User: Which sequence fits this backbone?
């Protein structure tokens, strides 16, 4: 699942990861995180990724199984995986449906799993077959197939041109991003984007938008500056067939590149909300484009809908980190 | 040693049959039937995969040259999977275990016997009457023995300097002799023989 978080200013490189994201990713305090980027030429990387597993270091797969519950399932499953030289990195399991079923989700490292089988059988069909056979009388079947999914982590394996920067520890929900890519991005923006040159103070602070991929186990932090063609907008519209298509088509016609979309129905058949992170390419000829001009342009996107059912809202960046909770256990007793 | 995948499937089939007999059908009459069907399909798919896997046994640098030739043809051109005793194994297993597992997953054994060890002929003071005065690598013989025990059909490609005692008594499906000068055309013949034998096995199985 993808989780989104509104823009936050990035002060001194300190990034706040909201609780929901940390919970979804299973990142607890004091967890060591790896910060990495891809080699991007000629412009520097504006997206910094964070993960608890170093890219390309392991062979990470996800295993998800639904059993009819009985005693000893987890013991047998873990034994089978150990026999196959598979290392369990994370495991989450629980019973469902009045304790009748037992669902297991694991992140596994198959680096040590019979490499000859892996080379010949990149889908790990044999490992899958061994699990199915061991639990053939316990697995829940969905039609003709057992409810078992085994798939490779699409992000953390075999990344080419990846640059792993300093690792960082998660402390109180915050993590210090590596300075090198941030400095490179700032220098690039200062050099290339006209309006940014004249800005100082708050306007010169970078903003960051977060998207977490809880299945693949990483967060993308998109770093950007005000008045550089990047903007975050929310459209509210009637929930009907074609709403997102209307917005996407209009944005395309107006020259925007969609970097992020989070569209959801608020009330079925009534209303929907669409958050978008957009980029409008600014080159030297367009160096007078400011966020205000962009907002004007985006309001007119709403007007392409003849029924006028779409309206635009612009959200200011939130605060970087909620103030630390005070220890107030004695508050009710205070006079 | 772990069970082969074929044995694992057969055990699962037995367990399904046993449970189907013991457990009365209450709410889902098809639950055992679905499992039976799934295992049948799985078994067929494993057998298909096995049929396309060829174990090639070799030793020494000379053997590696011949292996490369066969590998390029079978894997690259014929789209079969070639495996050998040198294939990487997990840390916790022994060489023998790895070889047995590889052989179990293969349908045909191809042995490349090169003259690796010079043996003293039992002709004291007299020059040997034959050029065949060498023995092949020990592991190639071990692997051949395992292949025979697993009832895999054998194809042998034997260098002319390998003594007949190491290959004559073994009833290989096909035998090809080669020298350093002609190994390429002989390797091509071996590949053709593998493809033909594989087709015959497929016909017999299907």
Assistant:
């Amino acid at each position: 699942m993808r989780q989104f978080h509104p823009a936050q200013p990035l002060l001194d490189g300190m990034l706040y990861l909201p609780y929901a994201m940390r919970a979804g990713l299973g990142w607890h305090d004091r967890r060591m995180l790896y910060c990495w980027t891809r080699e991007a030429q000629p412009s520097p990387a504006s997206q910094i990724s964070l993960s608890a597993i170093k890219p390309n270091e392991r062979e990470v797969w996800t295993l998800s199984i639904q059993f009819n519950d009985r005693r000893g399932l987890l013991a047998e499953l873990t034994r089978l995986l150990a026999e196959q030289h598979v290392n369990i990195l994370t495991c989450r399991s629980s019973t469902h449906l009045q304790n009748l079923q037992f669902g297991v989700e694991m992140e596994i490292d198959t680096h040590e799993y019979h490499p000859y089988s892996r080379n010949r059988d990149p889908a790990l069909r044999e490992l899958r077959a061994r699990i199915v056979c061991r639990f053939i009388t316990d697995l829940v079947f969905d039609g003709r197939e057992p409810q078992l999914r085994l798939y490779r982590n699409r992000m953390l394996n075999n990344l080419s041109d990846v640059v792993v920067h300093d690792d960082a520890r998660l402390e109180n929900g915050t993590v210090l991003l590596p300075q090198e890519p941030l400095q490179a991005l700032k220098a690039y923006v200062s050099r290339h984007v006209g309006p940014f040159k004249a800005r100082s103070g708050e306007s010169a602070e970078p903003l960051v938008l977060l998207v977490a991929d809880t299945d693949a186990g990483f967060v993308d932090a998109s770093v950007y500056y005000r008045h550089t063609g990047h903007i975050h907008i929310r459209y509210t519209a009637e929930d009907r067939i074609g709403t997102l298509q209307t917005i996407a088509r209009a944005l395309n016609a107006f020259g925007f590149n969609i970097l992020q979309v989070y569209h959801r129905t608020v009330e079925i058949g009534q209303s929907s909300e669409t958050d978008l992170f957009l980029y409008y390419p600014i080159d030297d000829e367009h160096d007078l484009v400011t966020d205000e001009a962009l907002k004007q342009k985006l309001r007119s996107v709403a007007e392409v809908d003849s029924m006028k059912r779409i309206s635009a809202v612009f959200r200011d960046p939130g605060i970087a980190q909620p103030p630390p909770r005070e220890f107030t256990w004695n508050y009710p007793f205070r006079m | 040693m772990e069970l082969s995948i074929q044995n694992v499937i057969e055990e699962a089939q037995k367990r399904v049959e046993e449970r189907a007999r013991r457990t009365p059908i209450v709410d889902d009459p098809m639950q055992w039937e679905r499992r039976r069907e799934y295992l049948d399909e799985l078994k067929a798919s494993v057998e298909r995969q096995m049929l396309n896997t060829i174990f090639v046994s070799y030793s020494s640098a000379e053997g590696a040259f011949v292996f490369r030739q066969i590998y390029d043809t079978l894997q690259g051109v014929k789209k079969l999977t070639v495996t050998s005793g040198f294939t990487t194994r997990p840390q916790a297993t022994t060489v023998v275990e790895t070889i047995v597992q590889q052989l179990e997953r293969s349908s045909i054994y191809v042995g490349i016997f090169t003259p690796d060890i010079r043996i003293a002929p039992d002709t004291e003071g007299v020059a040997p009457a034959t050029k065949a005065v060498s023995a092949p690598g020990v592991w190639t013989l071990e692997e051949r023995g395992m292949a025979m025990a697993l009832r895999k059909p054998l194809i042998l490609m034997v260098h002319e300097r390998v003594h007949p005692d190491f290959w004559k008594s073994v009833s290989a499906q096909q035998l090809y002799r080669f020298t350093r000068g002609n190994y390429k055309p002989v390797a091509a013949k071996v590949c053709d023989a593998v493809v033909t034998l594989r087709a015959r096995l497929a016909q017999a199985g299907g």
